[in-house]
Amino acid sequence: MNLIINILILMISLLICV
């Protein structure tokens, strides 16, 4: 579960960066 949340946060931060 934690891993999935981490991946979601990573994807969101990437979207914000781009």
Automatic annotation (TrEMBL):
<keyword id="KW-0496">Mitochondrion</keyword>
<protein>
    <submittedName>
        <fullName>NADH dehydrogenase subunit 1</fullName>
    </submittedName>
</protein>
